Records
---
Amino acid sequence: MKVEIFGSTDVGLVRDHNEDNFVLCKDLASQDWTYKRDEQFDLGPLGAVLFVADGMGGTNAGEVASEIAQATVDEEFKKITAMPNGDQAMMDLVKKVIVKAHQNIVHRTHEDPTTAGMGTTAVLCWVVNDKAYVAWSGDSRMYLYRDGAEFSPITDDHSLVWELVKAGQISPEDARLHENSNIITQSLGDEARPPKPDARMVQLHTGDRVMLCSDGLSGMVSDNKLAGILSGRLSTAETCKELIYAANDGGGTDNITVLLLDVLDGNAVPAVTRPESSSASSTGGMKTTIGKGAVPINTVASKSGPGKGLIIGIIVVIALIAAAAFFVLKPGAGEGEEAGLDSLGNPIDTSLTTVIDTPVTEPLVPIEEVTAPVSAPVTTPSATPSAPNNPNRPAPRPGSISPPGTSGENPGQGTQTPPKDTTGSIRNQLPPKDTSKTDKPRGLTPINPPGGEPKDTSKRG
């Protein structure tokens, strides 16, 4: 399977430092943890790894928690030399890596009490052959964009408002704009409530776009607008840049991280002949409709050729024309018409005679093959992509987008300070206390619990 891969992170327009971290390993078999702009390559036998960690904790070192998670993913995947046996084993492995990252974060808080209370969300995707195995804890997300399919997250946020979405009480867009959208029910780093990651497997096809992101993107940009940008089919790197622009244009109140893997050459998208029966599947709630190349079930003509009735009708018409031509051109025809007699001198029965005003003078062209048009495939229109150079859009802060160089760096390797951009992580000195996001125990459903506001332990988005 041929793919293209890229990633970028940005501090946003409000924060003074970046607590996000990410991992991109384009070839696990050769331990190649680098990536380049516009580089197309065949996926190796052990696939590629994508990971996003969104640190939280403010003065309690949220960026340290996300960095520990990043380092854990590096360490655990470098141990892999062979594929686990079966899809379930693959999903179990990516979940175990997230749990291991949680344990390492807790261990650090024991060594350094000043980091107590730090945590991070995580979303991890292992792409092998034509499948993506994803595990997550918190509200960092994975999306799959596919032409002709409904666009929605593959992952289900571990958050208070997403529980309301799953219960049918509010819409995903309502959840995005909800005042309590920052309250999560699961994360890495809380020793009293260890995470229980969820996992899914997604089948990939040619044209698919796999996107991982922190909520700095999904919280600022609606799913409809995300789909519009992804449908624009800019290059992988340019699409990442446009997505970050959109998040900053929407307010840029949080750090923004986005990773993108484009499937350039893989398995064809299967034709779906009964779109009316589409339903949520193992791809995490994505509803499939007719895609490109699909043939609708109720087409009048078949690709195998014209129907029998059409052929018979043509034959009958040809026979009638030939018979009429024979009688018109027969010798002696018309000699006794004025007298009301035929060529043998018999009276003409006008009640049974069809008069042909213009005789057929040109030879008939034999019909070698009769074909009928096939109805064009039905495709679902995509949202119009946002213009990459909108003069009315506020320009991002200097250095907010990954530099237009030819290579990316693995985040966490080297220190950089904002606003200078990097395709890896940005680590600065510890910031002042940030109380923008709250990690709350699972199972809480009321938005405003009786007795007061939910406890705020400073979850950074």
---
Amino acid sequence: MTLLESIIASLLLAVTAVACLDATRGAAELQRSSVVWTQAVADAESELATVSQGGRPLQTTRVSRRPWRDGLELLEVDVPMANGSRFQLSRLVDVSP
């Protein structure tokens, strides 16, 4: 093996290592983002269940009710996420008599 072949082989190995490290970093970032979204969805579903049963929402949660059609109303719950954005969940519920 010549010196030029050794240099090229080392360069290819370094490029491959950098690509693998970058893919690992991307996967870790996706996992952190997934945790934030999963928590937001769980919080929104919990708040929606609480509000649809007549309970009071948390102070950080925004809730809106709008008439929809024949005995139904649209219930929207807006929950803050850990990264500063908000997640909104909507559900049609029966209007209580």
---
Amino acid sequence: MNRSLSLLLILLALLLSACSTGGSGSPTSGQASPSAQARVETDATAEPTPSPVAQEPTETLEPDVTPTEESAAETDGTEVVAPEETATAGPEPTRRPDSTGATSEQDVVLDRLAEETSELRGLPIKKEIQEDYLTREQLRERLAEDFRKDYPVAESDAEERLLKAFGLVSRNTDLRQLYLDLYGEQVAGFYDPKTDEMYVISSGRKLNALGELTYVHEVTHALQDQAFDLHELTERYKNQNDDATLATLALIEGDATVAQIDYLRSQPIEFQQRIVEAIQEDQTSTAKFDEAPPIIRETFIFPYQEGEIFVTRLRDGGDFDAVDRAYKDLPTSTEQILHPEKYVENRDEPTEVELPDLGPVLGAGWKKLEENLFGELQTRILLEGEGEVEQARDAAEGWDGDRYALYGNGNRDIVVWQSVWDSEQDAEEFASALREYDEARFNASYSEQDDTLALAGANQVALIRQEGERVSYTLAPDGALAEQALDAISR
């Protein structure tokens, strides 16, 4: 449900540190802390972070998360050393003259980085890559403008109501401001596939070692765009299937993260030492990321962390040929990203779930505000909110498809959610975990009423009904509305 993730393709600063200090492909050992893995580099295919309902990409700044930490977001102003000091010899770069006809040393460095990235990733530079710098204040101004154009208030309000109904964010959360604060803090750089613009966040218009890694990540996005048309890929499921969009982002961001790690491994030890120094000197805050609810924080970083694992599995120690083929045969669910064997070996395509229009059932005044799906990832995050992590993951692993809808009437909301599972036992495990989640957050108990579980909380009635491999759920202001909605989606 992360509408913000599809706004731009970004790189998180936290992620940069993680990439430089550890990760599956990194030359050093050790894992970065969760907060260290959260800083974002922005990409033009990102959007605000997916809430419990994964949201489709919109043309706005989106955090790009990689297994590195946050340092690339705001560089320390130290200029990257000359090409021969940081990299092995590569193809002669195309040098771009400035307005005076001269070519700056910085442009030479950027050209060299683009050429090396192209060679490492195995994607040609088909047209000149244009880049620029933004200060963090300029980034925040751009984010506000992009959100205004591409993330309508009605859309963010509906997402916020849905998250609150499911207990995924607190009642006093201002979701729109939360996204703006989070992206403003964490974005280290971004590529916008709609405009072909690429930016690195820097106060001094220069790159330090972490900024160099950020540039490599974003250049990879530019190369992907030239080869595969990222705008079309990220818009394919817009506002229809947020889980599939999140899976697509995991391929894109995982690919860029792996290329970034390959670049890091190709550099001399002195470069790695400069990265450590840049991380130590970096003063960028991670407060907003650390304070964000799990549904925002974990969805935010999923494309980078799990995407890197997924792409590494596709490569299987070889080149990027299998990764290139995946752009022609996209993963269709976060389940396939979390369990790569369900994409690589025995393809497990999700079951499509359809919900009826409840307008005629609910009566006058009720309007559908939101409809989409959670997928395995966000279902798991929801269940983890009030239960044991391992139990929640086990309960979510049997996911085979789902669909939810939010209806509003003034300040009253009705939520319906139907899911299908790999087996009846998987459905039973999920229904049990969902029951425990509601009982903990409402501090009330479900009771059995024929084939339905019912819970009456403060101004809320929740119903759960399992029928074989299918589980139906409703949350409404009173019992009559809850029963009407449940009966309608259970037919």
---
Amino acid sequence: MKEKNKYVQLGLMIFGIVAGAILLFFFVFYIKDIVAFIKKVIGILAPLNIGIAIAYLINPIVALFNGALLKLLAHTKLQMKTRKKIAKGVSIATALMVLIALVVALLYTVIPEVTDSLTALVNNLQGYATSFYGFATDLFEFNPDIQAEVEKTLNGSLESFTNWIRTDILGQAKDLLLSLSNGIVGAFKIIINIILGLCVAVYLLVSKSRFIGGFKKLLYATFKKETVNVILAVGREADSIFGGFISGKLLDSLIIGILCFIGCSIMKMPYLVLISVVIGVTNIVPIFGPWVGAIPCSLLVLIIDPGKALIFVIFVVALQQFDGNILGPNILGDSTGLSALWVVFAITLGGGLFKVPGMILGVPTFAVIYFLVKTYVEFKLKENNMPIQTISYTKIKRIDPDTLNSEYLTSNLSKKERRKQNVFADDVSREIAIAARLSRAEKGKKGIMAFGNNTEQEGTESEENEDD
């Protein structure tokens, strides 16, 4: 029976390795097709995705209103069940009305201003270009050679910029407006998706407790109680990371946009609504976003009013420093737990796979994955009675498998001298030998012997039989 179990386990291990290798092969060589399939599925499930996003965003508002209403209704003679139903219904309706009111206010106030600013910018672009051309050439009139080179560069740059605005930007905008006006089916589909998304959001918020209870019921019926407790704790932490980052970043960007509008109004900057919207929206993307919005806005101010360009750049840099060192940390805290390197990695990977949405959601998504990996690593370390602090491993050379005593790296001995102190030719050979010895011992405890050991054992038995 033990012999049969041994081969069953070996067969399962080989099957797992082969299946993993095949999956890795398909993932690496068909990554584009996999991403395209994921995008297609996301597009098909657009109403559900919109509903989940709306429900997730307004859930804190619903919880806030629900708690306040329950306190108010506590003084009435209504039954507890009735009070909960009334509080939940009113809080969901109030939260949806707040969301719709904010969106309508944003569209009513910001969109016309941005449209008027873009229209005025395009209409006056030639005049702005001429003024900037005169300013730049007058700046270098003391040196004719530099002035001639600047004139040549500006002529080419302004011509390219004008053509880009009129052909690419305006051309795409006109095509977009034309497609929206002519594509009644497409516009109708978008409206239907939003309406269905709102219905899905309401249903999710109303049945939230039932969904959560059913999911926990499934987990406890499937896994061990200790495992489910860990899963639920990890899920709460992941929700805190993801939700805290998204809501905090939206609030942070809104405040930055308002502060930019106030500052630009005081300094009487041109197209202040357009500039404030660009600065606020691009601020949602971590690290790169603020500079992606600041560069084109600075160039716009430079072309329209060169005298205020330096003031605007100083103001934007000061605003971003305020956001990065004071406002952002106070709102977001350490919600992601990621270092700057991992943030850049998440933005790059997310943007490469899913464009702008990937750049925004890449950081919290990767933060959740990072947290899951960190939790698993810490669990395995605690299981082996080892410390979980990273600083405990920075200068460790090796850990003795039997005693768990640590040997630390020393800088006073050369590699050659360290090798002389070991029985083996180098550290790698020693560690491989120790690991192999422990592996054989562990397999021996479990009744699973390696092929080499079986061969040696059979050979020994045959020799003993021959001697007999």
